Amino acid sequence: MLPGPNEIIKCTNCDCLYVKRTLLSGNTFGGVSFSDGSAFYPMMPQFPKLISCSECDTLFWVKDAPLIGTCEWEDDICEDWQNAMELTFPLIEEYLLAIEQKIYKSIDEEVYIRIQIWWILNGLRNKGQLTQDENFLYIENSLRLLELVKPNIPDNILIIAELYRNLGRFDEAKEMVLQLNDNFPSDIKQKFLKHIKNKNTKTFKL
Ligand SMILES: [Zn+2]
Question: Is the separation of the CB atoms in 37 and 165 below 8 Å?
Answer without folding.
Answer: no
